[in-house]
Amino acid sequence: MRSLQDEGIELVFGYPGGASLHIYDALFNQQAVQHVLVRHEQGAVHAADGYARSTGKPGVVFVTSGPGATNAITGLATAHMDSTPVIVISGQVKAHLIGTDSFQETDMIGISRPIVKHSFLVQRAEDIPMIIKKAFHIATTGRPGPVVIDIPKNFSDPHYKFDYSYPKDVDIRSYKPVEEGHSGQIRKAAKLLLASERPVIYAGGGVVQNDASEELIELVSLLNLPVTNTLMGLGAYPATDKNFLGMLGMHGTYEANMAMHNCDLILAVGARFDDRITNDPAQFALGAKKIHIDIDPASLSKIIKVDVPIVGSAKTCLSQLLKELKKNESKLDMEKIQPWRDQIKDWRNVHGLNHEMLQVTSSSGKILPQQVIQSLYKETKGEAYVTSDVGQHQMFAAQYYHFDKPRRWINSGGLGTMGFGLPAAMGVQLAFPNSTVACVTGEGSIQMCIQELSTCLQYDLPIKIINVNNSSLGMVKQWQDMQYSGRLSESTYEDSLPDFAKLTESFGHVGMKVEKPEDLEPAMKECFRLKEKLVFLDIVVDPDEHVYPMLEAGMAMDCMWLDKKTKTWE
Amino acid sequence: MKRVVALLMENQSGALSRVVGLFSQRGYNIESLIVAPTDDPSLSRLTMTTEGDARVVEQITKQLNKLIDVVKVLDLSEEEYVGRELLLIKLDSTKEAEAKVISLGGQILFKNDSILNAEFVGSSEELDKIVTSLNESNLLEVVRTGLSGISSTSKTLTI
Predict the structure, then answer these.
(1) Is residue B156 assigned to a domain?
(2) Chain A contact for B15 (CB, 8 A cutoff)
(3) Which residues form the domain of B139?
(4) Of A2, A53, A209, A504, which sits most exposed with the smallest number of CB within 10 A?
(5) Chain A contact set for B71 (CB, 8 A)
(6) Minimal CA–CA distance to A396: which of A433, A428, A371, A367?
(7) What's the ipTM?
(8) Are A4 and A33 in contact (CB under 8 A)?
């Protein structure tokens, strides 16, 4: 506990149990660290993750051994895939019992090994301060990621005394992340940028995590470059700016995907060319030179071979690049890329999503999920922190909520963890008690961590839950509609869904249900008028709506479905 | 193509499982693996052989470097290197077998009326040939250590 205080930690999420009782007793006797008691350990890790993503500070979790530890696994995998700094401190059975199948024993280090950046099994109590120091250093520097500290109960025993001191510095001989990009590579990158006629910036979560938005904006305005963000990168560049193409990839905009496919230069920053972006890597942007800035050397040329790999932090490398470009100010020629910009404008006119509010109208007389997000955007003036679960509603939120600032869009991009949204929103709301926090979810995802409604009451968290209820696992249904001739195998609930409004009320919050299009805006208004309350807005939407555009699997990035009948390829 | 990667890692519990885990996790294939502490007791040195093209091996070395416990990685097969492994065998103890072992350059380590143990040191290919040739005798058991290697250039795998 003292080490956590000395590390400056103010907030911990957790759930006590036998092996962590000593730690919880120490927690009881102090004021500096506030603890939030969740209802399930998965919720604790997601909440800490939401806190970390929205603040940039590490999120901390306490769990006990055995089931406490295993329940934390999904949260750890989520944090690992999205590279967020989360520290899970798990209780372990007493050291002499390890390996004996004792009560609530599980090999936490072993189970979590592939989904953490690093882990520590404490072997002497006196090592705890240094291990905690190292854990925070590892979690928050370089490419961030989760770290597990497993503490056998006898090493947290207050009777075990040692001379405490918290280390000031940490030095790990095998871990020295490189911040600064190689100057030769930076020069090459600048040269390519200046020579390019059809450039695109492809910016990902690394720009958000590394707080490099300012540098990105400056670079874009210096060269008047088109820029697209990944799902994880939304907010890295202001979505309402004219240079923004929208999100790219699987459900990216037509203009963003077309621009990627047809460009002659890609500047990738803090992104990792994952399969939801590139579609078939063998057909990916064949005419483009590629510059890739990433803090993780292993991300470079992993999927797509790049011409100019640059290892370093997004912020530092972009500053270096800016400096280099400014040296060549005479060569800056904004006119050169004008034809390219005109081309992008044409694509935008064919099928644009991001630059004006599309008046989506429903032929079915039902509310459309897109309208829900548009209404949310309007009501919150685009300034809310929006967490999301996973599925169609997540994609609609990414497409229709235009994030102008980084760290406002909090979703499980890499792992795609249903159940992430509500606990993540708790972490955000605790970090920003006076800000508006909305959780966009679906009736499927919300039921995976719905027990946290109880936590929200205990800690007075006025989250607004926007439940896009299509009575089915929407994304699964969409794929079944499109690829399995509409055979809806186990993706609907028949009549088994709960009355979410009543359910929420039983948790002590406000629940509302909306079914008619004309009731949507008034309900949304009412929802956000109740500033002090958690409101669960259950919105019944058209279950047959699909997310478009959608890349056709196994093809290039210009092969998209634009709606149920229109595709861009032969 | 066969590749030989050597690395130095922290000599502590859990380090080896991270290295081995990485291979199964990322779908890389390990053909052989050999590990022992170095003269600096805080470090272990590991040599592994794997199949893969240059791109796969580049990914492997980068991913290994990312592990916090891994201090330094060297792809020995990128340049000149020397690789050797040890072969221990057990044979029925006969005069012919003993003569055969000696003719193949092996050393007799143990001998009684029924059992004969011998050792051979060589490159993997040499040892393959020796095993094939010994198969004609009554080979009871064969054990190989896997390849250990050292570079033949000025590049050293030290800290």
Answers:
(1) no
(2) no
(3) 82-148
(4) A2
(5) 173-174
(6) A371
(7) 0.89
(8) yes
